[in-house]
Each structure stands twice: as structure tokens, then as C-alpha cells.
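=== Structure Prediction Worksheet ===
Name of assembly: unnamed complex
Input type: mixed (protein and possibly other molecules)
Chain count: four
Listed entries:
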Amino acid sequence: MIIVMRHDATSDQVKAVVTQVEAHGMRTHLSDGDERTVIGVIGTNPFALRDLFVEAPGVAEVVPITKPFKLSNREFRARDTRIPIGDHVVGAEDVWIVAGPCSVDGEAIFLETCRQVKAAGAHALRGGVFKPRTSPYSFQGLRGDGIAILGEARRQTGLPLVCEVLAPADIDTLAGLADVLQIGARNMQNFALLSEVGRLRKPVLLKRGMSATIEEWLLSAEYILSQGNYEVILCERGIRTFETYTRNTLDLNAVPLVKELSHLPVIVDPSHGTGRRSLVTAMALAGVAAGAHGLMVEVHAQPELALSDGAQSITPEAFRQLVEQVESVAAALGRGARVPA
Amino acid sequence: MIIVMRHDATSDQVKAVVTQVEAHGMRTHLSDGDERTVIGVIGTNPFALRDLFVEAPGVAEVVPITKPFKLSNREFRARDTRIPIGDHVVGAEDVWIVAGPCSVDGEAIFLETCRQVKAAGAHALRGGVFKPRTSPYSFQGLRGDGIAILGEARRQTGLPLVCEVLAPADIDTLAGLADVLQIGARNMQNFALLSEVGRLRKPVLLKRGMSATIEEWLLSAEYILSQGNYEVILCERGIRTFETYTRNTLDLNAVPLVKELSHLPVIVDPSHGTGRRSLVTAMALAGVAAGAHGLMVEVHAQPELALSDGAQSITPEAFRQLVEQVESVAAALGRGARVPA
Amino acid sequence: MIIVMRHDATSDQVKAVVTQVEAHGMRTHLSDGDERTVIGVIGTNPFALRDLFVEAPGVAEVVPITKPFKLSNREFRARDTRIPIGDHVVGAEDVWIVAGPCSVDGEAIFLETCRQVKAAGAHALRGGVFKPRTSPYSFQGLRGDGIAILGEARRQTGLPLVCEVLAPADIDTLAGLADVLQIGARNMQNFALLSEVGRLRKPVLLKRGMSATIEEWLLSAEYILSQGNYEVILCERGIRTFETYTRNTLDLNAVPLVKELSHLPVIVDPSHGTGRRSLVTAMALAGVAAGAHGLMVEVHAQPELALSDGAQSITPEAFRQLVEQVESVAAALGRGARVPA
Amino acid sequence: MIIVMRHDATSDQVKAVVTQVEAHGMRTHLSDGDERTVIGVIGTNPFALRDLFVEAPGVAEVVPITKPFKLSNREFRARDTRIPIGDHVVGAEDVWIVAGPCSVDGEAIFLETCRQVKAAGAHALRGGVFKPRTSPYSFQGLRGDGIAILGEARRQTGLPLVCEVLAPADIDTLAGLADVLQIGARNMQNFALLSEVGRLRKPVLLKRGMSATIEEWLLSAEYILSQGNYEVILCERGIRTFETYTRNTLDLNAVPLVKELSHLPVIVDPSHGTGRRSLVTAMALAGVAAGAHGLMVEVHAQPELALSDGAQSITPEAFRQLVEQVESVAAALGRGARVPA
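=== Predicted Assembly ===
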């Protein structure tokens, strides 16, 4: 951390800052420029002290010089994290494909969709029974009633399940069933929930908050990692921008950027990421070309009947074509998409 | 809700949409323009069906024409909600002033600050024992240890307490002590927590999420109201913008806009709202001039020692002057600030 | 356009609106819902009247139902616009690749870079002599001195030139030399400049403004088209988001969305779009996979000496590899990248 | 400027950076932390060199430590800039009030509005003859025909005129007539136009761009100041946010922040700043309470007939009441609003 003094700071103000820094067990290093004095702060976690100095007398600015995330930081662990889920290893070269309806909204149609996405090449199923909805008047998920249906889908297809948890209480309900617990965008900074899933030993799929920076997202991952659960998969799902023709804006820059900054795997969700069925395939292909370790795609056997997010669900047939094109693009870049048969 | 058909929609596509709308128990009303057909949908809560139609064949757009919030909507309840807290009525003409440190970080200094803010004219105390922090390596609040200190502050000053809850489990801990439960910005869409405080009969202060629209904020209030708890105070605390010289951007437009759209009281927090001590007083005055029902201000007897958010805390003396200026501005606009002695 | 009346609008208020609409030569169509009256407005360009009604007595909202862009709208012209530039047709299947330094900052190095990007497969050269810079103290471009160098580059390589214009006066200077005139992001709503290039008969590359919506971007294109110049190429170059690790956020959703809404060709600039050299190749590949008609890439033979935007320039060798990978991805999707030899 | 080296930078990489810095005539100052080396760069305008280093081998980050604006920076000129316009001094204690229609759209109604705003207490008139409109199909201003009307308004009221210029060519047309030239939000980074008005000796009112940071705004002011024209008035007119119920979000934080960072006067425009008539008065009062040096308000004798921006225009009677309330709030804070009679 660097403390930049004001142009007109007195030498007493400089001394006061130095004294206070050292009182917190850190060392200082002064540098006098033509215009002002700059104080380097050396020690462990100086970031935590930022607030103490930012408006102290004579201080112009406090500038962090190390990134505040540690366990997820590639600078301190160069090797990619790889997470086995079912027959697939997430974070390796092959593209991991998760698919299924946004929510479980009827047994027959849900099971039918799951069978079809498996046939088309999906490696895992998605399907929520607790749904976070902006309005209390929208469909909130089947809750308890959906659990049995999810279990049946898992049994019939043999595919692992990714399920969202909304509250610590859901973890107990879902932990026995789901292979991966998903934290949704609106809960990315629900720190109580993050700590709770950090205490499990089960992969967590952490969606990016709608207006979160990459740093905040990695700090949320850090809440999970710092509790001892290292199996975190990041999922970019669209950020909020000024665009009104789409629900969200899938931020693919996040893919190569996360891979540069962190060793954790990162996948993309072009369905929530755009909110428009007609954009899903193009953005799925772009995600793979950008280097994503996987895709999460909403598929519904009858999108026009979906009780949530029908506008962004594609049909099983469209999904089958998407998988084929993903395979072509992945192959062109020297990567695979399918689990070896 | 209005369903706008595409310019080239066939009459079969129009019929299919009408049939499906009516299958959901709603009525339709067709209007043929020069360029396209528009279908009005009449019935209860058509909003919930939006997703069914938005990408149906031949549909160009689905446009809501009623606001999705109901219980908080001034169109359906013209009279202002007024909420008695201690000796003050929040939502009436007088300005409600809540003040205190961001978090409880030491007994002596906390009690000293509370005594001073009371002397300066505060109507209620703020002080968190659970702190939501972006980084797991930052100070997380005194938790259990802070509870006794909060109780002592309440006893010594006689002022009501506003405390933040981060998780359903905190409610049990704090419900006996706090007079108002605060939901922080990062939890504005933690729907499990909103439903839980909705089941209490105790005022809730709901902070606006950092990138939330007014509609989303009112829909979050709706989660609380729809559980039967009508005592919700909205608190504008700064939105995220591209500005880098401030931590947040206090959005004062929200004040007259919320008052136009809703009957719920709305206050502003110029401390988090700017993140810079030097801007707090100007923005507090502006908030009152914009019509806010109250203010929430961070005060710390020794801001330079605060373990969180010291950069935005003002001293008790600065707070005393702020209260005086608030009184002048409120009086100039025909409002009061002080509880009558 | 639809005018939604308030829940409590009187029948006189409804009549007043209808009368005023008809006074402007439009027809109306009333629809009475359970809760409110909705007035459909039928006629040419009702959009221009929006402001007259939006706060009229009894009006709740005015909702446009046709998109305000006309000449660029795919609804009214289904066929893709194709623009021949040199030996290439922009807007057809093949990927158009424009490359070169951000600005002309030295003759030898500029010509060297141009020769190398041609050898690597570029179809056109970029190189600015007028640079829009946020600070008046940054390098502003070589201006007049750069013109001769540009001409020499064109002569030596035989490749067409893309040059930015900042003001109407630049058009006279550059029109004889440049094959494509570029309007930069900061000038996307410089309507005087747009009208001026609309009067030329020369292709215009229109960059998207940093916070512009797709609709605003297409309306800016409309300023050019409505003057009779139909050869407009749209270029996505990154939007402003809250991310601080990158300079901009390349919005690839814009690619399939523009292709759905408009018949104009759309290319992407991953160099400005990210501002970081290390992300350029991944985002170029993603852009092609998303369906972009072309790429604009900053290349500099010695990026560490570039007087502007060196941080986002790649070396000729990195560009050569990028072109190869673009060819693989394009081929995997059934498209070509190279001009046939 | 500080260059932060990577954790794993080699000593050769450090040396290379130092050598290159010194080759540009600057001095360096090394500081070795526990984790990395930090290089201070000392000299004139190091900011211009930022791009050279930001992706150099071994470099993690380049951090500016001085603000890039100079002539507008309060650190280098503590005293407030005061600009006499008519009988008023902008930048002093009294609130400067500019009012009038958004555009000149008819002689009788324009003159009537001007007479009424003068009677209500306005110090200057606004009225555009060239209007920047997002769509080429919207009303573009009366252009030449409006000039004579503006001149007549000035003659009849004796009040100074504020007029917008869209292009260098407008300056010649308006310079003889207008007392203040306005640069609109969309032209805030039209650097050719900024330089042009910088060469005049006439006050310039510079509106903030819709997504501009304060630093970018001050750098745009710097383009004018650096040409020798020191009479720049900044005008906050609303930024773009995610809110959809308002057209823009007036950012009042900008007021105390600009006053802290710069000596230039700053006013606010609550009309464009919100886009809704019903919010104008509340935000005008808030602007004054926040410390703004003035207000720019849209007034129209018949807002329902305004050809642009009618939704945000208030009536002369509402304006009269606004001025009275502004006077009360200003007086409560020890400031005046009226020119002494």
C-alpha cells in the first residue's frame, strides 16, 4: 500500500502518518518527489488499514499495490485448479457443458428435457427448485416438491446435478442430492451463505454479481476458499449495462481476464447473460473461443410454457446444434468438448 | 401488459398469442395499427406471464403498463406511511436523524460517540455488530461481543437502536435489542432474509442495492410488506457509477421519485453514499432539501481509529454543526428537525 | 406509440390527449382495461411527439412500439449491406481484418509495421494522424506531418486506409487519401460531423460511443444514411463498465444483436475494447465466433515505444498468430478470413 | 507516477524500466517491499508516459499520483474563479439562475416565457437554436430563424443569453449575440470544438458528459483553459444510470467534489438532470443546498406545446415558486439568490 501525501502536507503530518503505520506493526519507506511525499507501507495485509489513512490530515490518496485476493490469485499459485465432476474434469482443456431448464416446473417436461440434453452431449444438468425472483409475485420455484423430480432426473440420466442455494437452510436440503451447489448472482455478496458453503467439501459454482468487478468476484470466491473449500468454479452470467434490448450483457472479457488473474476455472452462461434466445448460440461459441472452461445453457422442451426465463431458453434441437458448433470451434482451437466415450 | 406483434406477424401468430393469453384466464383487446397489431392483456398480475410471450413467434415486444409493485405503490394508497420509532414519527414532516459509528469497535469509544451524538440532536443510534465486508480479510464486526455494548448504549442514551442483520440467524440475536432492523445494500435481493424480516412486527430499514433501480428496490420492499410487515423505511445509500474519486454516488433523485411512486418513508445516508468525509455535510443538507424524511450519518469520536469506514465518518463536533444546518434548511422549507423538547 | 393513462385519469383528460394527438394529424385507438385507459397512436413518426405527452395531465407513460431507426432497420430491408473496400467485400462471409498502429508516430516504424501486417494477412491499414485524447497534455497525433507517411504506406502496401476524422475540417484533408473515414467513439453523437460524412460517397466506419445503447448507435448511423451515404460499417470498441482492471469492456453481445436489428455490417476492435494486450487475441477469436464481419487490431512493431495506446498494441508476430487462429475459427464456422490469393 | 513491478519481476526487468524512464528525462526512486519493487517516477507530466510502461515486461501496474488536470486544479490555485455575467458574478455566494425554454420554437411564446422568467427573478436566459438530438427525425432547432428571436429576447429583457454551439461553424454565428457559449453533454469530448471556444475571450458553460468522470470533465475544461480562456463554468446535467423512471440522474455529489478539486464555478441543471417536471424543484433546492453556484432551469409558458423536452419544462408560475424556495434555502445557508435591486 502506498500513502500519497498532499502537495502541501506538513512534515508533522507526514510524521503522524508514519507513526500510526508503525503502531500497526508495519514498516514504512519514504520517497520525496518534487511535488509531494509518498509513503510506502510494507507488511502483511496493509489493505485492512486503508480506511484508517484515506482521510487523515495531509493525505491525498491511498493506493493499494497488491491485489487483495490471495488464495484465488494466480500470482501465488500458477497451476490451474481442476475439479472432477462426474466423468468430467472442469478446468482442463475439454469444454464442460451444463444444460437444462431454469427451474423445475413440471415432472414430465423436466425429465424429457433432461433426457434430450443428455442425448445432445451435456455433461451435467441444471435445474433449480428455489428461484430468486425480483418480484414476490413471480414463480418462486417448486421448492420441496421439486427435489424428488431432480433426484429422478439424476437417476435416469446418470448426470451430475447443479442446484442453486438461496439460504443456509437450503444447503441441508440439497447437499445430499446436488453434485455442485450454485450461488446466484444476487447472492454473490451474501457473505453468510458464502462462508457456509465454504465449510462444505463439495464444488461450488459462484455466479458473478450483476454489477460486480472481477476483484469483488474473486474476493467472494475468497470467502469460500478461506473456509477450506477449494473447489470453486466461477460463472460469468452477464452484467448490467445501459442496453435495453437485452436483459444482461454477457461480459466475455471476464474469461481471459479471470484466467490471467486466477487459477480457478471459469465458465459462461449465455442464457442469463443475454436474456434472449436468439443470441444464445452466438454467445456460447464466442465464450468458448474466448477460452471459457465450460458453458451453462438453458434448454426447455417447450420454452413457451416455461414458468421462468422462457425467453432465454432454447429447444433441445437448437441445443444439439449448439453442441456440434461448440465442438467445431473447440477443435479448431485444439480443445475438446465431449467426454471421451 | 401489451404484446406488440412484429410488422410481419401472420394472423395465425396473432391468434396463437390470443389463445394462449386467454388460456391463462386473461382477456385480450386487439388494436391494428398501420404497421402492426398490438394486443392488450387485461387481468390480474399479467406481469408474471411476461416471459411466456417475449420470444413467442411473431412477437416483437412485451410492454408492462402497470408497475409491478402493489402494496408499496402510492397509486393504491395515497396516504404517507408513518412509523413511530422512540419519540419520533418517521415519514412525517420532521427530519429523523440516525447517527453513530459504522461498527461497534471498542466499548469506551462507542459509548462516548453515542453520548455525543445524542447531545448533538440525534434521534436514534446506529452501530453494527455484523459487518458485510467485500474482503474476508477485513474487520467483520465484533459479533457477539458487540451486543452487550449496544445494549449499554441504548440504556445510557435512551435512544432507539438501528442494527444490521446479515442472515436469518442474526434476527434471533438482535430482535430483542434493536428497535429497527437494517437490511444492507448487498442483501437487498437476499429474498430469504427479506421474507424472514417480513414475518416480524418491527420496523425494517431497507437500503438500496448498489446498482438497483427504484422498481427493484420497491419490489424488495414488497417482499417484506407481502409478509405482513408494513413498517418499511427505505434508505438511499449511494449507487455505483463510473466515478472513481468517490466510493459511491448518493442518488438524491431517488428521494422525490420514491415519494412520488410510493407512500413509504425514504431517508438518505450521505456517509456511505459518498465515502468521503468532506462531502457528508453538503450531501446531508441536499438530502433534506430534496425532501428526505431522515438522515443516517456515520459519526466516530476518533475517525482515524475506526476499524471500518473511517474515511467517511465525521467527528461529533462536525455532526453538531451538521444538525444545526439541517435545522436551518428544514425550517426554511417549513419542516422541523428536532423532536420537540 | 402507446399513451398509457393513469389509473385515476378523468375522461376529460383522456379526451384532451386524444384531441391533441389528432391535431397533429395522427389517428387514435382507445382500449379500456380494468385499471386504466390506453391510447394507441397511429401515424408517421409518432416518436417525435413523445415529449408532448409524457407529462400531460392524466398520462402515466408513453411507450414507443416501433423502433426509431428506419434506414438501418432490418425490418424494412432484410438483405445484408455489403461494402466493397479494396479487394474485400465487408459484410459478406469472409472476415475483414484491419490492422496497424493506433497513430502515426514515426515514418520508419509505421511503414515497417504496415509491411508486416500486410504480410500477416491484413486487408486494410489503420493509422490516425488526428488523435482524440482525454487530456490536452497527451500526444495529439502528427496531424499534417502524418499525411505523407500514410500516403506512402498505402503506396507501398497497396492496402486501403482507414483514418479517423475529428472535425469537419479534417474531411477535406483526408478525403483524398483515406478509403474509409472513421468516426471515433467520442464523436458518435457529434451530429454536425455525422451529417457532414453523410454527404460524402465514401465508406464510414462508425465506432460505438462508450456508453451508447444499440439504439443510439443505430440512430447515429441514421444521421449518415439519411444524408444519402449508405456505406456505414459499425464498429464495437468496448463500453464503459465498473471494471477497473481493463480500460473498456468489449461488448460482443452487440454483434449478434446488431445483426438481428440491422442490415449494416458490424466489426469489433478488441484492442481499444479491452485496453490490454494480453486479452486481444482471445477477444478477437470470440468476436469472430460471435459473428463479427471483421476485426480492427492495433499492431505496432515496437509497442513499448508507441506514443499512444502502446498497452493495447500487439507485435506483428502476435498478429500473425492471431490471423491464423481467426482463420481456423472462421473455417470451423464455415466462413473464410483471407482474400483469395 | 509509480510503477509497481510484478512479484516475480527480474532485476533486469527493473533495470530496463529505470533506463527507459530516465531516457525520457525523468528521475526514478526505487523502493523494495517484501513482495515487490516499486519505482517512483519524478518529473514533469509523467502521465503522458503511462502507456509506455503499463504492459512492459515485469510491470504489474502504473499508478498516477498526481491529478492530470493542472489549470483547473485547486491545489495550484486556491482562490475561487469568479466570472461576471451581466449584473451577476458567477462563482461568488449568490445563486446564479439561468432559465428559459430548451429551444426557440416560436417567437411569441418564446418572448412571453422570457419576460415571465425575468419577472420571476432569473439572471440570464437560455434558449437554443441548434439542438443536438439523438434521432435525425426529431426537431433540430430553428437554426438561423431563431437567431433574430434570441436577439429580440435579449433586447426586451436586458438579460444575458446562454446559447449552445454544436460545431465550430456555429461560433461565428452566435459569438456576437450570446453572452455565454454552452458546450453540450454530447460534445464534452469534441476536442476540436473545445479548442475553438478556448481561443475566444467569452465565458463558456461546459456541461458534463453523460458518463464522464469528474476527472474527464475537468480535463475537457483544461482544453479550454489551456488555450487561454479561463472563464469556464461547469454544469452538472445528469449522468446515465440504470434507472428507467427518469431520463438521467442528477449527480449532486459532483457539486461539493468539483468545489474541492477545482476553483471553477459549478452549477446544476435539474431539468435535463432528471427529465421529469415533477422532480425539478426538489432537485433545484437540493442543488443549492449542496453548494451549487447556480441553476439552469427549463421553463416554458406552454410546456405541452414544446417541440423538445416538454416533459421536463416547468411553467413560469412553478418557476416563480422555485425561485422563492431557492431564496429561502440560500438564506438559511447564508447565501443570497437575487441580484441586489
